[in-house]
Design goal:
Helix content is 27%, strand content 23%. With 531 residues, the protein is α+β, with helices and mostly antiparallel strands. A hairpin with a 3-residue loop joins strand 17 (482-487) and strand 18. The mean pLDDT is 95.
Length: 531
């Protein structure tokens, strides 16, 4: 058996990480939309020829944990040739929700089959559908936008302009979509250049050997983390508040079995899929469960396919956590993924008392706004997820005004937002006293208040407006979120957590995001928690 050089292993681990980070840098710099350029709503990763993730950039957990299924969809194609690249977004064929477009580029060393795959996923601010931003209160996938199965967007190194034209004909902002898609193509092209440089330095055999060694190492580290959990059965339940179409609350159930260095996470007891858009495909649950177990491992564990080998995920087809076609799924990627994290961490809190943090804000607080631009020359589509409070934990207070768990984006800076869209920011601040009290209090949420400068359509997909983020170890719950609309006739009125409406110029919307739950029995509030 060949010996592993630990120094060489670390060097190759970091070279792979640098490759994916550089891909992300190229995508960010060359994209057109503020959602990708400013908020960095994208992720990049490298896979081996069997579709196993070798490494990833420190991007967005909900993207990265589910991306392997996109590469598996590419592997099913038998007509791939050097110079090809596949585009997809179909949640039922390797995607998550329609705004997330994934580009998969095979890397060929010989003519038999691809030896590696490069993949990036970017959230496009619009991909068609019944409302701007493609995050509607839908009841079936067809209402959510253009559904793209794995198709060749690049053939033998040439962009398929006919396919590009078909995509652009179905979106509200075609120039922006073209720019973002070409940025994704450029990012993978740069990744392929760097991949070939690695092959020149180390050789195919050496790189393959250490790639497998990195996955084996991640498996060992994750197995050791699971071994430290007492054997047993642990259960938890959480509830989605509603599906946006009048059904709710919706039960999410986890039954976790720990046996030695293996874990089985059984989500089959969750409710059936619902009419509204909070259904999740299995890939979403896979990414959330993977994220939760990675939290238990040391920070320097390589994040690759090996980390999930000790974990078995069980879901039930036709449930809200493994929805069947043609279920509406726009909110599953953003809202349900966050609540699955709450669910799994609650089960782990029973298994590891005193070691798991309280619930974070539990929502990505999705806001989409779209309509005619002020020049009357076209349309705009604005999408943003708004940060909240992190849960307090054994190590200290929760951070304030931060994207938590399954998301890892930035905000849209006020200057960029007002430059790109017919919107004006009236308020952007921390939400005082919204974090749960405790020895280590939860972090504070945010207040984001926007004025509409013209007529537009607004859609909200938010959670934790009725059921507060839980505290742990005697800590108090975090503050509930609130959504409000200001009109000259009625002043401020409350909005539901999930709603869609037509707005007029000079009206305003205010999003107040939830705070994190407190940890420990102390009475201190979140005031003064780090931001």
């Amino acid at each position: 058996m060949r010996n592993i050089d630990p120094i060489r292993l670390e060097v190759i681990k970091n070279r792979i990480r640098a490759l994916t980070e550089e891909m992300g840098g190229a995508l960010m710099r060359t994209a057109f939309s503020p959602n990708i350029k400013e908020r960095r709503d994208f992720s990049c990763a490298l896979f081996d020829g069997r579709g196993q993730m070798l490494g990833q950039a420190a991007h967005i957990p909900v993207h990265l944990g589910s991306m392997p299924l996109s590469v598996q969809a590419a592997l099913e194609r038998r007509d791939l040739s050097p110079g090809d690249a596949l585009l997809l977004n179909d949640p039922f064929r390797g995607g998550t929700h329609l705004p997330d477009l994934t580009l998969v580029t095979p890397v060929w060393i010989n003519e038999d089959a691809p030896s590696y795959f490069l993949a990036n996923r970017a959230h496009h601010a619009d991909i068609g559908g019944i409302s701007a931003g493609s995050m509607p209160l839908s009841t079936e996938i067809f209402q959510e936008g253009l559904r793209i199965p794995p198709v060749k967007i690049i053939r033998a190194g040439r962009l398929d302009e006919e396919l590009m034209s078909l995509i652009l004909a179905n979106v509200r902002t075609p120039q922006e979509r073209r720019g973002d898609l070409r940025a994704q193509i450029a990012a993978n092209a740069l990744g392929e250049t760097r991949m070939r440089e690695l092959l020149e330095i180390f050789g195919a055999e050496e790189l393959n050997f250490y790639g497998n060694a990195l996955m084996d190492y991640a498996e060992k580290v994750q197995s050791q983390a699971i071994r430290e959990i007492p054997d047993g059965l642990y259960e938890a339940q959480e509830f989605l508040e509603d599906d946006g179409c009048g059904q709710g609350p919706i039960r999410l159930h986890c039954r976790m079995e720990i046996c030695g260095d293996r874990a089985t996470v059984d989500l089959r007891g969750s409710d059936d899929q619902v009419p509204g858009c909070v259904n999740a495909v299995r890939a979403i649950c896979l990414s959330a469960v993977s994220y939760c177990f990675h939290l238990l491992a040391p920070e320097d564990m390589p994040l690759n396919a090996g980390g999930m080998r000790p974990v078995t995920l069980l879901t039930r087809r036709g449930s809200v956590l493994d929805a069947r076609f043609p279920a509406a799924v726009a909110g599953g990627n953003v809202e349900t993924s966050q609540r699955v994290v709450d669910l799994v961490l609650k089960a782990l809190a029973e298994a590891l008392p005193g070691k798991i943090p309280a619930a974070s804000c539990g929502s990505m607080n999705n806001l989409t706004i779209g309509g005619p631009d002020l020049k009357g020359e076209g349309l705009f589509a604005y999408y943003e997820t708004i940060a909240g409070g992190a849960g307090g934990g054994p190590a200290g207070a929760g951070a304030s005004g931060i994207q938590t768990h399954m998301t890892n984006t930035l905000n849209t800076p006020v200057e960029a937002l007002e430059h790109a869209y017919p919107l004006r920011v009236h308020r952007y601040s921390l939400r005082q006293d919204s974090g749960g009290a405790g020895t280590h209090p939860g972090g504070e949420g945010l207040i984001r208040e926007l004025e509409f400068l013209g007529r537009c359509r607004v859609t909200l997909l938010t959670e934790r407006r009725q059921l507060a983020p839980y505290g742990l170890e005697g800590g108090q719950s975090g503050g509930l979120g609130r959504n409000s609309l200001f009109t000259a006739e009625e002043g401020w009125t409350s909005l539901p957590g999930k709603c869609s409406f037509e707005a007029e110029a000079r009206q305003r919307i205010r999003i107040e995001t939830p705070g994190g739950g407190g940890w420990g029995p102390g009475g201190r509030s979140s005031e003064g928690a780090s931001s």
